[in-house]
Amino acid sequence: MKIRRRTGNRRESARDRIIATAAELFHNNGYNATGIDQILKAAGATKGSFHHHFGSKKEIALAVIKEIVAPKFNRRMVEPVADAPKPLDAIRQVIRNLRTQGSTDDLLTGCPINNLSSELALQDRQIQSSLSALLDRWQNEWAKALRSQSDLEMQTGFKSARQLALYVVAAMEGAQAMAKAQQSREPLDAVCKHLETTLKRSHD
Amino acid sequence: MKIRRRTGNRRESARDRIIATAAELFHNNGYNATGIDQILKAAGATKGSFHHHFGSKKEIALAVIKEIVAPKFNRRMVEPVADAPKPLDAIRQVIRNLRTQGSTDDLLTGCPINNLSSELALQDRQIQSSLSALLDRWQNEWAKALRSQSDLEMQTGFKSARQLALYVVAAMEGAQAMAKAQQSREPLDAVCKHLETTLKRSHD
C-alpha cells in the first residue's frame, strides 16, 4: 500500500487520518516498527488528537482492524460470495481478482490480516481474536457457498465443505505469504490458477 | 518454542547462547518486539560479548537464520526428500510429521521462516533474500521429487511439477499461518491431511 498525502484532505477528521495512516504503516512496516509519533507526523495530526481519540497504539490497531481491514476484507472476500446467486462462480471470481487486480507491488506486500496476525497473534489476545474472527467468517461463508454445490466434496476429495473451505483459505493466505517472502508473483499465480481450475472442474 | 535456561550449559559459547536465545525470542515475540538487552539477559551474556560477536541486532538475525532456522528447516523439509529412495513417500511423511509431531503449542506459533519474513521481507533486503533462499530450495527439491513421479502432474491437474511444488509449499505455509492466527490446529490438520491424500492417491 502506498501512503497517500492525507493532510491535504481537510474533510477527513484527525481520527480518520490517524487510522488510515496507521493501517498503511502497519501493513508496510509492521506494528512494532511503527511509532506513534511517526503515525501522527504522516497523518498530519497532533499528540493532542491522539490522546483525545486513543489511549494507546493498541487502540489504534483495534480501530484499524475494525474500520479499515475488516470492511475491505468483507467487501473483497465475503460479500461477493454471500450475496451471489451462483456462489461457486463468485468464489472463483474472488480468487481470480486476487491474482489479477492490483499492481504487482501490492501483491508482494502480503495479506493485511496475516501481516498483523503473524506479528501479534501470540502477543495480544484481543488483537488475535479480532483478526481470527475475520478468518472465521471467511471460512464459514465460503463453506456455506461450497456446501451449496452438492457433489463438490466428493470430486475434490474432501470430506466436507468446511474442510474444503479451510483448505482454500489456507492456500490463498500461504500464496500471499510466499509472494511476499520471495518477492515474486509466481507462487500466488500458481496457487490461484490451480484453485480456479479445481473449483471450475468440480462445477462443470 | 519454549525458552530453555541456557545459562546453565557452560559448554555453550556466549555467541551460541545469544543466537539460540534470539531465535526463540524472535519466533515467539517477533523481531522488532525483541530488544538486544532482553536477548543478552535471557542468554546470560554480556554487552561485551554482544559487541565482540555482532555489530547489530540484524547481524544476530542473519546468524539465527543461517545457524538455527536453516539447518532445522533443511533437516525437516529438504534432506528427507532429497535423499529418499521414494521421494513422494518422503514428501508425504514430511507433511504428516508437520501435523503429528511436536506439541499443539508448537503448532500454533507459526513457521519460523514465515514469522521472520512476514515482519521483515519489506524492511531488509538481506534478511528477505536469506529467507527466500530457503523457500527456493524447498520448492526446487520438492519439484525435483515430484518430477520423478511421471503421471503426477496430470492426475493432480497441474501443468508441471514446479507448479505443484509451489502449491504444496504455499498450502503448508498458509496452514501454519492460519493455525497461528486462529490459535487452532484445525486448518493445519485439514490442509496436511488433504495433501497427504492427494499425493497418495496420485502415487497409487
What would you report as the Rg of chain A, rounded to the nearest angstrom? 19 Å
Query: What fraction of residues of chain A sit in β-strands?
Result: under 5%
What do the pLDDT scores of chain A average to?
Answer: 90
- The first-to-last residue Cα distance of chain A is 37 Å
CATH C-level class of the largest domain in chain A is Mainly Alpha
- The CATH architecture category of the largest domain in chain A equals Orthogonal Bundle
Annotation field: number of helices of chain A? 11
Give the arrangement of secondary structure elements:
2 copies of one chain form a homodimer.
Chain A: H1 14-29, H2 36-43, H3 47-53, H4 57-82, H5 87-100, H6 104-107, H7 112-120, H8 125-147, H9 152-156, H10 161-182, H11 186-203
Helix pairs in contact in A: 1-2, 1-4, 4-5, 4-8, 5-11, 7-8, 8-10, 10-11
List keywords for this structure.
Arc Repressor Mutant, subunit A, homodimer, Tetracycline Repressor, domain 2, 11 helices, 204 residues, elongated, mainly alpha
How would you characterize the overall build of this protein?
- 2 copies of one chain form a homodimer.
- The first copy, chain A, folds into 2 domains: 1-55, Arc Repressor Mutant, subunit A (Orthogonal Bundle); 61-203, Tetracycline Repressor, domain 2 (Orthogonal Bundle).
- In chain A, 75% of the residues lie in helices and 0% in strands.
- The first copy, chain A, has 11 helices and no strands.
- Chains A and B meet through helix 7, helix 8, helix 10 and helix 11 of A and helix 7, helix 8, helix 10 and helix 11 of B.
